[in-house]
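Pipeline run #58 for the internal structure catalog. This entry was flagged by the ingest filter as a single-chain record with no existing model, so it goes straight to prediction. Upstream metadata was stripped on purpose; only the residue string is passed forward. Reviewer on rotation: M.T. Logging verbosity set to normal.
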Amino acid sequence: MTDGPGHQLAQMREAAPLVQNITNFVAMNVMANVLLAIGASPAMVHARAEAAEFAGIAQALSVNIGTADPEWGASMIDAAQAMGAQGKPWVLDPVAVGATGFRRDLGVRLLACAPTVIRGNASEILALSGGDGSGRGVDSSDPVALAEAGARELAQSSGAVVAVTGPIDFVTDGTRAARIANGHEMMPRVTALGCSLTGVVAAFCVVAAPFEATVSALATFGVAGDQAARQAAGPGSFAMGLIDALHGLTPRMLDSQARITPA
């Protein structure tokens, strides 16, 4: 990476990008607070009547299919196509994409809209890449390592950067790859953190190339998780601590604590 994650964090905060999020009911409040804490400007705009128009205003888009329905699915496609037409980044979070026929079909249709980045757990990436995963709804029952080959193939076939998140994250553009070893085991115990991370990736994509932006976003979130865990008594205080840690994280702290290695 030419510039470290700290430099990109500083750039993102200076830009304060407007990120449109078509996300799920569970995640909206948490995600908005995460993006505000890290220095971005979140907008939860999902109505089909305005989703594509608002995409013309926003600088990046995140799409999460967690509680999608047919109308929301159409909004997602409209907004994604609008972003693509303007050359602006958008990030796909294929929540439980292998669970039902509706989700599988929506995942295929969104892939056709050429996402800039795809971020999911191992089971979701396996399902989206055509592999066999054992996920249960939004949970991943598959280890990150099992999805690495599928992630590379998905990146090559889709043109997107693919991030498989878990205890050690894996990011690839189909040629390059990196692992990020930050984060804490308490993170999966708090709902909507993964969904929120997708918005953080979108914010970083405004100021950096997709591969570097994704690695830096995951490192930022993981380092904040490391810091939050030091003071947390459990998932509740961890969730509040993560917001504080994201807000207080400095570029120097991020560069010194990020554990990024080539893969």
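catalog note: The longest strand covers residues 18-22.
catalog note: Residues 134-140 have pLDDT under 50 and may be disordered.
status: ready for reviewer M.T.
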